[in-house]
Amino acid sequence: MRTRYWMGAILLMLLGCGQASTENARPDANGYSALEALHSEFEALRTLDVVDGMPDYRPETLDAQRRALEALQARLRDIDPTDWPVSEQVDYHVVRTKLNDLEFQHRAVRPWARDPNLYVDLIRRTPYADVPVEDAAALREELEAVPRLLDLAQSNLTSASAELTGIAIRQLERFDGVGQGIPAWSRHDAPEGVIGWYRNLVERLQEDGSEPELASTAEATLAAVESFRDWLRDEQPGMTEPAGVGLDEYQWFLHNVRLIPISIDTMREIADREAHRALSFLTIEYHRNRDLPPLEPARTEEDHARRVREAEEHIREFVTENDLMTIPDFMPEEFETDAYWTVRPDNHLHFWEALTYRDPRNNHVHASIPGHRFDFHIQRRNPNAIRASHRDSGRAEGWAFYLEEMLLQAGLLDELPRAKELFYIAIHKRALRIPAEHKMQTGEFSLADAIDFFMEHVDLMDEDLARYDLNMYMRRPTAGMSYTIGKNQMEELLAERTHQLGDDFHLGRFHDEFLSKGPIPISLIRWEMTGNDEAIRALWSPGD
Description:
It is a single chain. The radius of gyration is 24 Å and the shape is globular. The chain is mostly helical. It contains 25 helices and 2 strands.
């Protein structure tokens, strides 16, 4: 049965995704082949060249990119896809969203001019290098590129936000308490911020002693990073630009990039309803389980690893036995966890550790299987270049979040009532991201206000994880809404497909077909799966 479902999904992927081939390519300059050519040009355009070891954020390069984008958008408007097969029309809109996304970066977000964190993010991994150094020349090139980039940053940041600058200063000076992406060997005692990491690299190079010139280069780079921090401190009082883009730009992005045809007021209503529902169910679950012993967090790395492996085995068996989707043979035999083992001062746990150390299922369903990592292994094999190179946040997070409640309702936790509480806590937290994100984008909330909001309303929340999440939602408009609104779209699609197919509906085939369509906006997947294009037609007409 598993093979049949998966092969069916592969067939749908090959036949239904507008795949380029000799047979279906059109000579028409405004046909599908023109779309493919335009997409290839865009893919080359959107990634900045590396110059002197760092992405080229020089003003003249950015201006050239913007002008080239405008030319591509004009060409795209001249292509009329309305008579194409649905799968090819879907590809047209995927390309349209990609171009609109880059337009939004140039018009509204402008991180190279507004957000010092762009530059901090570019330099923060360099000092993670292992010592002894395997390739000293490569590390020297990276280290020498850092001062040049930070000099460029100081000339580029002409519209910097004081609040975004505060986030950057903190990132330079202090460990965020979460540590996503840092080397495994540093997890129990991470250096203090990006500056601490550069200082740590200097110390490790000096102790090793085999590359004295490289140690001197690292010292000079450390001085440049500290100087950049000092410059940000000095300039911050005069920075008057807002951190958020405002709700008008937010709404534009929602409609023209995410392809979600709702208003911000409707989004807030959905968020309120989801938050109230999750909190109500959590309250009921607490009452139901009031006489049961609480879940105790893992106390050792071995205990945590055992719980993760047992949770994954349970998830795989449940998904397979209940025909909920195909687990193809190319999937890894096991997946890692996002909430790796860390010992912090006073045994402090951040939010996801507090959940995952108690029971790993919520995080593992969302981030590993059948969520993000599982999804990634499928999408990397997508034969459609237009879709495979895309990653819509609402689709990615909507799918992963939908899985949490789908599996809860399907019975994954029937024998684990205390684990249900953790799922409802996560649902509640994600719904509350929307009002927090909106208020930060309008300036109604500062980052500190949003952190206080999370701390007050979300069970098990801690300041480190709240800050980590909310930093991202301040810097990346709509990232916070993607989870709840994407899940809502998934549930609408499930209901519509159930109604369409009646007795022929099968949940496992539905999930396999959904995954076969690629990591594209759910409104486009809905069109391809159901024939219902009302969402797209509400947002677009030919020539737009």
